[in-house]
Specification:
- By secondary structure, this protein is α+β, with helices and mostly antiparallel strands.
- It has 3 domains: 79 residues, Herpes Virus-1, CATH 3.30.40; 38 residues, no CATH class; 55 residues, no CATH class.
- The strands form 6 sheets. The protein has a 3-stranded antiparallel β-sheet with strand order 7-8-9, with no helix packed on it. Strands 1-2 form a two-stranded antiparallel sheet. Strands 3-4 form a two-stranded antiparallel ribbon.
- It starts with 11 loop residues before the first strand and ends in a 21-residue tail after the last strand.
């Protein structure tokens, strides 16, 4: 990451914490790579980026990063530091609303959380919108019933589709499924009144069974 090239004195940056000297370009590239990869290091109660010099484990002050990287990258780094610091606080949780991710403080024993940023109310136990007048157990029971009902409906729908495939044929004219309930192969669609042969699907004519290989009864 560090080039070791000869550079002008004004292109050299000296870290306040460890006094290591590196060119600004290499330092900027190092910071960008670490921030993009989310490589935030911790040392005791401190968190941050380490000096890029080999074998140096010194954590750098936030002003060092601000002095090197562009504004947008620094704001992202600052947010990363904030989030990691908040995660160490036991009563901090994150708003589950998509696109919000605001830090929320749990108060008391109630699982209800109100985000002052997106104005949504959530259940911290279920990680879903707040279920008014229902305990988590009651709400999850209702969800389970709905899931079981939906699964049953899917099973019944699949069984109906299989039955239609095995027991019926589509009308050649309107495609309505038709079940053969007798021995005669002369079929009439109850929906569009189209007449056809059950065996070959061709339009029925009075002499169809005498002039074809199809049998009238089967």
């Amino acid at each position: 990451m560090v080039c070791f090239d000869d550079v002008l004195k004004r292109e050299i940056y000296v870290f306040d914490e460890c006094y290591h000297r590196l060119c600004r370009s290499c330092t900027n590239n190092y910071f960008l790579e670490q921030i993009n990869n989310g490589n935030i290091f911790s040392k005791g109660s401190s968190i941050g980026l380490k000096c890029p010099t080999q074998n140096c484990n010194q954590l750098l002050g936030i002003h060092e990063i601000r002095n090197i990287v562009d504004k947008k990258t620094f704001e992202r780094y600052d947010t990363m530091l904030r989030d990691q610091a908040l995660e160490k606080i036991q009563d901090i949780v994150w708003c589950p609303t998509k696109g919000c991710s605001n830090a929320l403080i749990r108060e008391g024993k109630s699982p209800m959380l109100v985000c002052y940023v997106c104005k949504h109310t959530h259940c911290n136990n279920c990680k879903i919108p707040w279920h008014t007048n229902l305990t988590c157990t009651e709400y999850n029971g209702i969800l389970k019933q709905k899931e079981e009902k939906l699964e049953k409906e899917k099973t019944n729908e699949l069984a109906a589709q299989v039955w239609i495939t095995l027991k019926t044929k589509p009308c050649p004219a309107c495609k309505t499924p038709i079940e053969k309930n007798g021995g005669c192969n002369h079929m009439t669609c109850m929906k569009c009144r189209y007449e056809f042969c059950w065996l070959c699907g061709t339009k029925y004519a009075n002499n169809h069974f005498s002039n074809s290989k199809c049998k009238q009864f089967s």
